[in-house]
Structure formats: structure tokens, C-alpha cells
Amino acid sequence: MSKAAAKSIQADFSVQEPEGEGSAAVLTLTGHWVIMRLEGIAGRLRAAIKRYDKVRVDSHKLETLDTAGAFVLRQVLGDKLDGDVFPQNESWNRLYGLVDTCKGDLDTYQKDNPEKRRFWLHPIYFMLVYLGQLMNRFWRGFINQSTFMGHVITLWMVSIVRPSRIRWAALFNLMQRAGLEALPIVFVTNMFVGATLAFLLVLTLKQFGAAVFAVDMVAIGVLREFGPLIAAVLVSGRSASAFAAEIGSMKMNQEIDAMRVLGIDPYEALVLPRVVALVLMMPLVTFVGMAAGMFGGALAIWGSLGNGPAFFVQRLHDYVPVVNMFVGMVKTPFLAITIAVVGCRMGMTVKDDVISLGRQVTTAVVQSIFLVFMIDAVFAMLFNGFVF
């Protein structure tokens, strides 16, 4: 690019002397007076018109203008302006009038201009700002989640005292949708996970002549971690997104507002049945996932070592305590409550547009999966002392 072309991209100006006594100097604006092209322009412009009492603006050669350029002109010209600043362009005139109402000092603007800061402070500054915003969002989300959870627990206690308040038809329907209909995908996925784990363990332990221990490790891994974890992740993808989408669409259609007008608590009618249904069905889904994982592991070991199902079952009976199954099952109610509450809360926070619905559904899935892994890690540390 030539020097002349590069100069035309930047904001620039020229000043013509007054033709006679009492007349105004002519300020001709050229280039692009936008925020990215204004470096150093304010000081040069102020020095150029300092000795003139009146200045008239000629903007025929001005290509573009934004609020930053209009702000610089307003602060530098001040009371020296003679006539309208942009008589031939009404939109620029309105823009100049808009910044004319702004209170600000150009010196302060120049001091705070990012171009004047040290370049190495930029990434540190933005990283700290991002971390602060992230922690603020996390804290606000934690408070909102705790408040929502308290409301649900209160309704749960009231429903235990007064079972007539439970909507049984909705509860059984949700148990079927969130639990029974999830069994095929949970079974198939856990079977492949168990088979893959068994193949890897056999391949590794064969080098040490201990391939038979793959049975123990597959069973322990599936019962304690993989069975509950894979089931919870799949239920998060199915149920958390479904709960957020269903409640969010009702929020968009103002059905929840209509329920409140009719005296119906939407938490009792929509949230509580979903939480209870998932808590009741999650142990079944997890148990099926555990069985599928061990079934896939048994098939893989049978194909790799030639030891049939009888060997696998006998090995389980002799060397895998039942406590491993207890460790895997005890966490399922907490995972279920987390998944259901996150999905329902995201649905309740949907605004009146489709973009908000999609964003909250995505957030429900991401948050529920993240919390599932976090809860699983907490339980793994709590039950670390339990012997195999």
C-alpha cells in the first residue's frame, strides 16, 4: 500500500486561513474519523485551530464518521464552530448532536485511551476482568441454584406430609419418559464402555501374565464409577435438556404466568414431579448401566482370553465385594436431584425469545454434566477408604 493510500485511511484534516477579518477559518475533514483511526488527531487539531476564533467545517471529503470522531470534533471545536458542523449530511449532524449532550473531557479520554497504555498490560487486564466476571457469574449461579433447591426441598417436605398434593399422572408419565425410555441408550453405551475397558485391561495385563485380573478391574470400575457416571451423563443430555426446553417454552408462551394467575404453583406443578421422577428412576437406570457394563466386559474377556461367562461370574463372586455396588448406587439420588434441578431452573430463566431458549437449554446440559463429574469426584474422595 502506498503512503498516500495509507494516509487516506487515517483521519486527517487541513485548515484554510480566513479570507478576511471577521470570517471563519475553513476546516476540511478527510479520511475515516472512526475510533480505530483517531490516534493523535485531537492534539494536532487543537494546535491547528488554536489561534482562530471561528471555524467552519467542510466535510465533502470526509468518508466515514462514528461517535468517537464526533466526540473529538465536539471537544476540540467547542464554541469556535461557525454554523452547522455537517449541513450537507443530516445523519452526521444528528450524531454530532448526540455527542453534544455527553459530558466528558477529551484529556481524560486521551489518558484512558488504550493506545496510551503499556501493551503488556492488555492481556493481564483482560484476563483479570474475565476471571472476575467468571467468578461473579459462578457465585450468582450458586446462590440462585441454592435458592431454587431450597424451594424444591420445601415443596418435597410438604408433599410428604400431604400426598394428595402430588400430581400422580404427571409423575408416572415423567418416570416413563426420563427413566424407562432412557434404558436402551444407557444399556448400549455402558456395554461398549465395559467392552472397551476390558480390551484395554487385557492388553495391558497380558504383558505381566495377570490378564485374569481384568475381570476384577472391569467390575470394580463399572460398579464404582463408569456405570453411574455414564448413566448420569446420558440422562443429563436427555432429561436436563428436555426439562429446560419444556418449561422454557411454557415460559415463552406465558403459560407459567397463567398458572400463577389461576393460583397454581408452577414449582409444584412442573418442577417437583420432574425431580421426584428422576430421583425414583435414576437407581434403576444406573443398575441397568452397571449390568450392561459388566456384560460388555464379560464378552470382551471371553473373546480375548477364551474364559466363558461362568469364569467371569465366579471371579466376581470371589474377589469383588458388594460394597463396590453400594459406592456406585449411593450417589445416584444426588446426581438425579442435580440434573433435574439444573434443567428446571434453566427453563424457568428463559426470556421471551427463541435465542434465550436455545442458550438456556445448552447451559442446562453443560452445567448438569459438569456438576455430575464434580459430584462423582467428591464421592470418589469420600469413599476412598472403602476397600475393594
Characterize the structure shown.
The chain is elongated, with a radius of gyration of 34 Å. The chain has two domains: 8-116, Transcription Regulator spoIIAA, CATH 3.30.750; 166-382, no CATH class. It is 70% helix and 6% strand. Strands 1, 2, 3 and 4 form a four-stranded mixed beta sheet that branches. The relative contact order is 0.09. It is built from 15 helices and four strands. The termini are far apart. Helix 2 (41-48) links the parallel strand 2 (25-33) and strand 3 (55-58).
Give the tags.
388 residues; mainly alpha; Transcription Regulator spoIIAA
Count of extended strands:
4
Low-confidence stretches: 1-8, 107-120
End-to-end separation: 72 Å
Our count of domains comes out at: 2
Structural shape:
elongated
Tally of separate helices? 15
Question: H/E series, N to C?
Answer: HEEHEEHHHHHHHHHHHHH
User: What would you report as the Rg, rounded to the nearest angstrom?
Assistant: 34 Å
Largest sheet: 4 strands, mixed
How much of the sequence lies in strands comes to 5-15%
The helix content, as a percent range, equals 55-70%
- Classify the secondary structure makeup into a structural class: mainly alpha
Overall pLDDT score: 84
Q: Could you write a compact summary of the structure shown?
A:
The protein is mainly alpha-helical. It contains 15 helices and 4 strands.
